[in-house]
Here is the input.
Amino acid sequence: MKKLLFALCIATISNQTFACTGIVLHSRDGATITGRTIDWARAETNNIYIVVPRGYEMQSLLPDGTQNGIKFTTKYGYVALGAERPEFAIDGTNETGLNIGLFYFPDYGEYQKYDEAMRDITLSDMQVVSWILGTFSSIDEIQENINNVRIVGVEPGASTTHWRITEPNGRVAVLEIINGIPTFHNDEIGAIANSPSFDWQHTNLNNYVNLKSGTADSWKLGPDTLKSFSGGTGLLGLPGDFSSPSRFVRAAFFSNMTIEQPDGPNTISQAFHILNNFDVPFGTAFAPGKEPVKMPSATQWTIASDLKNKVIYYHTMYNRTIRKIDMNTIDFATVPFQFSPLDDVKTETIIPVQIGQ
Here is the structure.
């Protein structure tokens, strides 16, 4: 029965129309903000936040449905948003300010094959976020230790994943496992999506060399003077569909063209405005009449994290009121391990406007 429930949980997460997009912003006072959407269109997941104390022992799930993989005890406490099970942290920040997010990476990644004889160092792909948040405080530490574990797909046949890792000082790396080999890419653009690989996405940006912020200049074409119908025509040709390459291009341009804000809270607001551009309307994910479920959006939740001030903000497809978790109010030495739904009530917060008579 335990194996069956495990398989059902994994299938709920793994077999999705998945279209997550991430950005990184910086404020004038040195705050680094990570933001991303989480998009599952085929089923509504059990979306939760997770609080993990220091000294909490975890053990990895394995492809055979047992929980007999690598054991690790958290050196750092952390807060993450996840899905289905508290082991499956998707995006979180630990008490040092290190942030990591999981993004699906179908068809281009390849993990090492599961070897039962090496289960003691085997780590589920769905628990990499938990392992890194609980164990490390820097990208250098992760790079030094990544080959001490064997990351495997916890569900055979499911998509591979890749991960964005961000330090509070603004350094960003993307971890991809291709042909069984962990590879780190420095990310100075501050954008991530899904497939193809991170280096391909960067090369693809050259196809949009003509794009710029502002309004395109007028010019003469024979007897006609071509001029802009409106502002913003410097971005004519920016792809607007929801494919991964198009979302990466939009994320790269929007995050680098945004106006720098004075501090973390203002940059958080800016991040949510940018991420609004990546909400996936549910009707675009399937052909007409083929929708398997009814949800308000294919974008189930959106998160933005202030790594300097250690505050996590999110809203969901049911309630776009922004909620926050202030990690400074948590004593990670004494707080109990816990998890709770992202939404107490799945309804939009609507505040009536009182009109004076």
